[in-house]
Amino acid sequence: MPPINEAGFALAHASPSVRLFARELGVDLTRVRGTGQKGRITQDDVKGYVKDLLAGRAAAAAVGAAAGGALPRIVIPDFAQFGTVEVKPLGRIKRISGPRLHAAWVNLPHVTQFDEADITDMEAARVRLKDTAAAQGVKLTPLAFVLRAVVRTLQKLPHFNASLDERGENLIFKKYLHLGFAADTPNGLLVPVIRDADKKDIYELARALGVLSEKARAGKLSGAEMQGGCFTVSSLGGIGGTAFTPIINAPELAILGVSRSSMKPVYKDGAFVPRLMLPLSLSYDHRVIDGADGARFAATLAAQLADVNGLLEAVP
To answer: Which residues are catalytic?
Structure first.
């Protein structure tokens, strides 16, 4: 554990019992984010901090083991010799997620498949249904349609909804389908998980997206709400970009990156017509998924996004 900042510890917004609990665990309360009333630090917050710290160290250890000590280290010079600098601590979320991303990048042979999907009809349907959804208190975003299309694609290609066991000798097929989505928050990137996404229609997915996104931005996501994902979607369309290579959220086998859609001339029925095209970036673990499977997934997903009636079907 990091050393306790005694001055800050004394001013931390926590009850005496929580302070005692933190002392017993050696936790510096100045490093713990409070989720209680008016930001009060609870016992669960202390437990969560310890779990996150241990998980981050375990991921860092995994990176070292995978590297076998053979990876060259980056030499960091004294930047102050070149001019004035300012040092700020890395945010808690980045300190935790960084080693995990590093471990995934080092251990998983990434391949990224790029494709485009015609979402002209999908967007027209979304705009048409936007007011109906709003009347139900739901914001119908393009991401909800993408998630529904991902669900239908995973149902057709179930080996993408699997994970390798620890020895890398067996595939574990999941009979459930929980979808993670990357949420941009003031404190950093979080990945809330929509449980049983295959049992939710487009409106239920949109509602879950809204609820979990708001909790993520408010820093109120529980650990359980970020666990158990089978497949992750990272959408940067609201910000920009034409393509990117997302890092797999291990132990998942693949992750979908979605960039900004744009109108393009597409040759169809003997003529060029304007169509709204969505760039897709599918990164996958090449130990399990080969290039043909990656291309097949992207093509199947594009077909699902073009099938508006299928996306809007009721879910039994």
So the answer is: 286
Q: Are 261 and 223 in contact (CB under 8 A)?
A: no
User: Phi/psi class of residue 168: alpha, beta or left (left: φ > 0; alpha: ψ in -120 to 50)?
Assistant: left
Strand duo 179-181 + 183-185: pairing: unpaired
Q: What's the angle, vertex CA 151, arms to CA 148 and CA 155, rounded to 5? A: 145
From residue 6, give the alpha-carbon distance in Å to each of 12, 28, 31, 113: 10, 8, 12, 51
Q: Is 280 buried (19+), middle (13-18) or exposed (0-12) by CB count in 10 A?
A: buried
Strands 183-185 and 188-190: antiparallel
Can you tell me which residue has the tokens 């996501």?
221
Is this structure's pTM higher than 0.70? yes
Kind and range of the H or E element at 115? strand 110-118
Q: What span, in angstroms and rounded, lies between the C-alpha atoms of 272 and 79?
A: 54
**Is the peptide bond preceding residue 251 cis, with omega within 30 degrees of 0?**
yes
162 and 288 in contact (C-beta within 8 Å)? yes
Provide the token pair at 241.
């970009």
Closest CA to 109 of 292, 233, 289, 299: 289
For residue 184, the 8-state DSSP code is E
Q: Which SS3 state, helix, strand or coil, does residue 284 take?
A: strand
Query: How would you write the pLDDT of the chain (316 residues) with one tens digit per residue?
Result: 566 767 667 778 899 999 899 888 888 888 898 998 888 999 999 998 888 887 765 555 544 544 444 567 788 889 999 999 999 888 888 888 888 899 999 999 999 999 999 999 999 999 999 999 999 999 999 999 999 999 999 999 999 999 999 888 999 999 999 999 999 998 889 999 999 999 999 999 999 999 999 999 999 999 999 999 999 999 998 898 999 999 999 999 999 999 999 999 999 889 999 999 999 999 999 999 999 999 999 999 999 999 999 999 999 8
